Amino acid sequence: MNSIKTFYQHLLAFLTNEAFWVKVSTGIVKMVMIIVVAAIASKVLKIAIHNIFKVRQKAPIRISERREATLLRLLDNVVTYVIYFIAFVMILDTFGVEVRTLLAGAGIVGLAVGFGAQSLVKDVITGFFIIFEDQFAVGDYVRIGTFEGYVEEIGLRVTKIKSWTGEVHILPNGTITQVTNFSLHNSVAVVDVSVSCEGDIERTEEVIRELLAELPAKYEDIVSPPELLGIQNFTNSEVVMRVTCETKPMRHAFIARALRKEIKLRLDEHGIEIPFPRLVLYNRREETNQATTNA
């Protein structure tokens, strides 16, 4: 009974200790203020960084838009991590935690963990060189391994790729060994046009060339006028002509579909037929009867 009574006395003294509650309330208020200041500082720094990049866009000498978007995302992440880490350390110091001792211990533990977390270190180093060498940037269409899509975000540890069907693939940078970037240079649209063997090939080529000369003014994604290379192949029923066109990066599929439509409509206007399956039937019985009659 005495031990229980003593426990309740200590608990009551602890709960009614004004100095303790003043310290706790003061610490909570400081913690809230630190979090609010950190959020405001993070917002202000991000706005400042965005404004700096807007000013650079008007400068005569500037880096590419792709790299600007990538660096902007990366700096946003770095600002968030740094500010909230500092806020966390300040909160610990507010509650009386020895920050110096903690940081010293964290350094030793971090060194030990670093040997065991080599994959993480590899991810960070690879991410740095991806950004430094400008291998690909946010908004580029790339193929990495079996994944293909637009780059949503590049961080120091992971890269996010969004496929055309909407899936987002998160790839550790250390696993990126080969990258195919489709957005660095202009693309080429290739279209094969089939016409009937019975048609006038030279007239068909003339009609197609007249059409191709008109298309750059109609489609802004065309970089240079489309070119009719000539006859690519022919079979028993068709002659295949090949048309190529240089387009802006990743616009070759759209231009190829547009070329097929425009060429089909123009051929119809001039009465030029495209090949279609044909079936010829021979009646051997009639041939036998005719041979018997002649005999």
From TrEMBL:
Q: Which family does it belong to?
A: Belongs to the MscS (TC 1.A.23) family.
Any one GO CC term of this protein is: plasma membrane
Residue ranges annotated as coiled coil are none
Pfam families, A to Z: MS_channel_1st (PF21088), MS_channel_2nd (PF00924), MS_channel_3rd (PF21082)
> Which source organism?
Anoxybacteroides amylolyticum
Listed A to Z, the keywords are: Cell membrane, Membrane, Transmembrane, Transmembrane helix
Where the record annotates domain Mechanosensitive ion channel transmembrane helices 2/3, the positions are 77-118
**What is the protein's known function?**
May play a role in resistance to osmotic downshock.
Q: Report the transmembrane regions from the record.
A: 31-53, 74-96, 102-121
Q: Where is the Mechanosensitive ion channel MscS domain?
A: 120-183
**What residue stretches are annotated with the Mechanosensitive ion channel MscS C-terminal domain?**
190-274
User: What high-level taxonomic lineage is stated for the organism?
Assistant: Bacteria, Bacillati, Bacillota, Bacilli, Bacillales
Which domain of life does the UniProt lineage start with? Bacteria
SUPFAM superfamilies the UniProt entry points to: Mechanosensitive channel protein MscS (YggB), C-terminal domain, Mechanosensitive channel protein MscS (YggB), transmembrane region, Sm-like ribonucleoproteins
Under Gene Ontology molecular function, one entry of this record is:
mechanosensitive monoatomic ion channel activity
The UniProt entry lists the main location of this chain as: membrane
Q: How does it sit in the membrane?
A: Multi-pass membrane protein
Is Membrane tagged as a keyword? Answer: yes
Name of the molecule in the record: Mechanosensitive ion channel family protein
